[in-house]
Specification:
The protein is α+β, with helices and mostly antiparallel strands. It has helices spanning about 10-15, 45, 55-65, 70-85, 90-100, 100-110, 115-120, 150-165, 200-205; strands spanning about 125-130, 130, 145-150, 175, 180-185. α6 crosses α7 (about 115-120). The longest helix is centred in the first third of the chain and has 15 residues, at about 55-65.
């Protein structure tokens, strides 16, 4: 499956909820979800019917995958890794997704969205524990320190994003030092600390079919 390059608001409309794919724009009155815009497509009303159990599980998976901006194969690899580890598979999956480098950069407020954070990391503006990190899907651990490079171009972008960052964006499991443009993962997030409103058990059941 190739990278999606279409309008991201269409994905939110398809899932029927805000996926926060456009940063601060998602909080504006023009958001299609706030305006009540329905599912995209010409024949939506004609095909409207009660969703099957499989359909519900698929929508949960698609919603989570799109929220983190991942392709199907990459998302499945994360699920496989969660399945391999000891513990509750659904919760571990969410923890792995939250600990991705691009997501942590977004959570710290260094980028306005996960898509922007991914580009920010790919362009070499971020370091992890003092070393350059340019792999957005890199999974971090407790104690890792994520920082913006000490360059004007890197920090100008981060400053603008920090000024526009919302309180909901900053989780309790990350400690931000705004003056030093760095943040530390102080603990592994629990299920209650992870933002996505999703039924992760439905995703586990979907992949267990």
């Amino acid at each position: 499956m190739g990278r999606y390059t279409g309008p991201v608001c269409r994905q939110c409309r398809r899932e029927g909820q805000k996926l926060f794919l456009k940063g601060e724009r998602c909080y504006r009155a023009k958001c299609p979800i706030d305006q009540g815009t329905g599912i995209p497509g010409m024949h939506v009303a004609r095909r409207a019917r009660k969703m099957s159990e499989y359909g519900e599980q698929l929508r949960q998976k698609q919603s989570l995958r799109r929220q983190y901006g991942m392709g199907e194969l990459q998302f499945h690899r994360f699920f496989t890794e969660a399945l391999r580890r000891k513990g509750v598979t659904g919760e571990i999956l969410l923890q792995l997704l939250e600990l991705r480098l691009d997501n942590v950069v977004y959570r710290l407020g260094f980028a306005p969205s996960r898509r922007a954070a991914r580009q920010y990391v790919l362009h070499g503006h971020i370091t992890v524990n003092g070393r350059k990190a340019a792999v957005p899907s890199m999974v971090l651990s407790q104690g890792d320190v994520v920082a913006v490079k000490d360059k004007a171009k890197s920090r100008d972008f981060a400053t603008k994003s920090l000024d526009a960052a919302t309180k909901a964006q900053m989780p309790a499991w990350i400690n931000l030092d705004r003056t030093a443009f760095k943040g530390e993962i102080v603990e592994i997030p629990t299920r209650e600390q992870i933002a996505p409103i999703v039924d992760e058990q439905a995703i586990v059941e979907l992949y267990s079919r």
